[in-house]
Amino acid sequence: MRYGLFYGCAVPSRLPFIEKATAFVLGKLGIEAAPIVDATCCMDPIVLKSLSVDAWLASSARNIALAQEQGFDAVLTLCNGCFCSLNETAGMLEEDKTLLAKVDGALRGIGRSYRGGMTVKHLTQVLEGIDPSDLAKRLVRPLAGAKVAAFHGCHLVRPAKYAKVDDPVRPTILDRLVDRLGGVPVEYSERNECCGMGFTGTAPESAAERMGPILRAMESAGASFVVTPCPSCFLQIEGAQRTAGLAFPLPVLHVAEMYARAFGMDGKEMGLGYHRVRFAEEGVTV
């Protein structure tokens, strides 16, 4: 299986350490992957889709078509929103050949074509598929009982018709990944809430306030850090900590960074010093 890496917008522009951690982890696991050349924004599953489903489908399908043209077997995403848009698009076009023909016709107008048949995966799915014995051989720095708050976000598991990653009401895939690395996933009351990123453009104060109860619930559960599979959630969780009233800062890791640390990647090499909230060895600050 050769994956076409779809980095999306936030990772390359604002969170390049996630990109670096992903390359390290995939290399350690022997997973063949390379960036999709000339990919654009996924066309997020909130804004454009609400204005024009046709434009959203065509724009999203263009990215999948690029992966197909470049000889990849599947698309691999690092972002919940990217996964949702690309995976839902692939699913809709696979089940409706008339719709596929319509979208393909639109793509032909820009010299592209999509034949269908491509699979889209999120990094969490690939990591869960690693054989436990193979994983154990690569652990250099296990979590060693660290208490971790897993924050799944919204779009990894919804819409359930297409996502099929985990239970859409109570996902636990991140908890399972934490457990495999030797950590202890904590239970907290707000674990299935939205981070608020979707309405930062229209109600930024409300979006920031949304994270307060979530962060305080994580702190009350005894979490030492937070792990998320979503760059948007990452930005929200970090950015809200100045006003959340926490006793101590809660570092945040993307799931790729959590695995990279466990596989022995140095924090400086990864770029953990560029996090807003840093681990003790990087100097904990907010």
- Average pLDDT: 94
Helix content: 40-55%
Q: How would you classify the helix and strand content by structural class?
A: alpha/beta
Provide the CATH top-level class of the largest domain.
Alpha Beta
Poorly predicted runs are none
- What is the overall silhouette? globular
Structure summary, number of beta strands: 8
Our count of domains comes out at 2
Intertermini distance: 40 Å
Query: Strand order within the widest sheet?
Result: 2-1-3-4
- Strand percent estimate: 5-15%
Question: What can you see in these coordinates?
Answer:
The protein is α/β, with parallel strands linked by helices and 286 residues long. The chain folds into two domains: 2-124, Glutathione S-transferase Yfyf (Class Pi), Chain A, domain 2; 130-282, 3-Layer(aba) Sandwich (Rossmann fold). It has 14 helices and eight strands. The protein has helices at residues 10-14, 16-29, 47-51, 53-69, 80-95, 97-108, 123-128, 132-138, 160-163, 173-180, 204-220, 231-239, 255-262, 267-270; strands spanning 2-6, 32-35, 74-77, 119-122, 147-150, 184-185, 225-228, 252-254. The chain has a four-stranded parallel β-sheet with strand order 2-1-3-4, sandwiched between helices. It has a four-stranded parallel β-sheet with strand order 6-5-7-8, with helices on both faces. Helix 12 (231-239) links the parallel strand 7 (225-228) and strand 8 (252-254). Helix 2 (16-29) packs across helix 13 (255-262), helix 4 (53-69) packs across helix 6 (97-108) and helix 5 crosses helix 6. The model has no long low-confidence stretch (mean pLDDT 94).
